[in-house]
Amino acid sequence: MISKYRAEIDGLRGIAVLGVILYHAEIIINGNHLFSGGFFGVDIFLVISGFLITRIISDEYKKDKKISFKNFYERRFRRLAPALILVLIISTIFAYFILLPNQFVFFIKSVLSSIFFVSNFFFHYSGESYGQSILTHIPLLHTWSLSIEEQFYLIYPAFLIVALKFAKKNINLILVVFIFLSFLFSLLINKNHGSFNFYMLSSRGWELLLGALLALSEKNKKFELNNNLKSLLSIIGLCLIIFSFIFFDSINNHPGYKTLFPVIGTSIIIFCSNSKNFIDKVLSFKILKNLGLISYSLYLWHHPIFSFAKILGIDNSNLFIKFALFLLSILISFISFRYVESFFRQKSYPIKKIINNTLILTSSTFLIIYLALPHQQKNFPPITRELYEKTWFKTKQYFKPCFQRKKIFCEFNSDSSNTNIYLIGDSTAASLQEELRSKLSEIKFNFIPMTNAGCDFIKKDLKNQSIFCNSEIHTLRKNKILKKKGLILIHLNYTIVLSEIEKKNFISDINELLTDNYKIIFIYPIPKLDESISEKINKLFRSSEIDLTKYLNDEKNHININYSKFSEDSKATFDLLLEFNHKNLYKIYPHKIFCNNYIKNKCVGHDKNSIFYVDGAHLSKTGSILVTNEILKKIIKIYE
Question: Does the pTM exceed 0.85?
Answer without folding.
Answer: yes
